[in-house]
Every structure is written in structure tokens, then in C-alpha cells.
Structure prediction request, 245 residues.
Amino acid sequence: MLNFVLCDDNKAVLDRLSKMMDSIFIENEIDAIISLSTTKPEDVLSYLEFNTVNALFLDIDLHSDISGLDLADIVRKKNKRIYIIFTSAHLEYILVAYKYKTFDFLPKPISTERLKETIDRLVDDISNDKEKITFINIDNKNTIINENNIKYIKKDGMKLLFYTDSKIYESYSSFSKISEKLPSNFVRCHKSYIANINNITNIKISDNIINFDDTGEFQCFIGPKYKNKFMEVFNNDGNVTNDLE
Prediction:
């Protein structure tokens, strides 16, 4: 499911945009939700710290100490992959907006047709990215797993358990050996866990719990030794080298 966040200083504009997007999601059978719709840029920063977001719709003039451009700058420094779409009636901002690797710029008032075009392109772009499948051989029996399906890896005695939606795979191996095969989105978060940050739904930082779905069925834990490094990697969207030793 794709996760959208909206920020505009005008509540009426926010409500209209939310309704338009919900209609587009339903009519086109797009698996997506608007998880946060707010007039406060601070709410966006707080939410992004512990939740995975695919796309951020930002008004430029937020009538706040933090403008939409300022917010985009902060977000982009922490997250290189999130899609940023600016909305504004001030077309003079277009060239400046694209400095922040902007996916699109929607002039206000936003039409349904223009919004749908943007969402279609965004969904298509994300889908193509997810289709880049890579596999990992987890043992000497040539057990192959799609890396994208792994939520987390748990150390259980002499074995490693690979948790996916469909089943739990077992392998007699160690974190140091398996780390050589893993991409940078697999990050050590506990002495007994490695998390795939691409599949994280949310983090309960006060409880040191990482959730990989909304039911609590898939979750692992953050250990004090690994907490600072893990949160640094998570907030930078995996652009830090793994340290799994």
C-alpha cells in the first residue's frame, strides 16, 4: 500500500485535495491511503521520522516559519527516495521547486484531470522500481528468496530466520556471513535482528518496536547498542553503509 502525506496551510484546500485523491484511488483501484493531512509542517517532520511515506504533497506558502521549500529541503536531506509534489498558485516558484528533485508541480486550483495524471505517473514509477527484483541465496541448499519480500531476519541460536509474508525460511548461518549478500536497506537494529527498512510500516520509538504491518504480526526490536545508528540509516533512507558485525 502506498502512503501519501499532504500539507497545506488552507484546511479547505486540504479537504478538497484529500477527497479528490480518495476518489482517484477508488475509481482506479489504486492501493493507497492518505495517512496524514495537516496544516503544520512540524507534523510532517514528526510523522516522517517514524513512518514510511511514498509521496509528499506540499503547498509552498505555508504561512509558517517553515515554507514548503524549507520543508522539502529538510525532507530531501533525510530521505532521497520520497516523491515530492508541490502545489501552488505562484508559478514563479516552479524552477526553484525542482531544485529538490521534485516529481511534479501542480498549479492551483488543481484539476482532477491534472491530479490523476500525476498520481498515475507516480504509481507507475513506483511500480517499475519495485519490479527490480533481486534474489538472495540463504544457504548451501540453494534456497532462493526475493530480497524485497524479506521483512526482517532473526538470529535464533545457530540459525537465521527470514520472515516474509508467505513463510519463515531457516538457514544455518550467521549475521556476518549473510551481511555480505545483503543490500544497504538491511540494517542491524538489535543483537538478534536485521530489519529491511524498505518494508517498515512504522516505528514505536518509545517501546523500541519496529512494525512491518498494521496488525503487529510482523515486528522486531531495537537494541540500545544499535539504536542511534539504525535511526540514522532509517532517516537517511538506507544511504549509510551497513555495520552488521
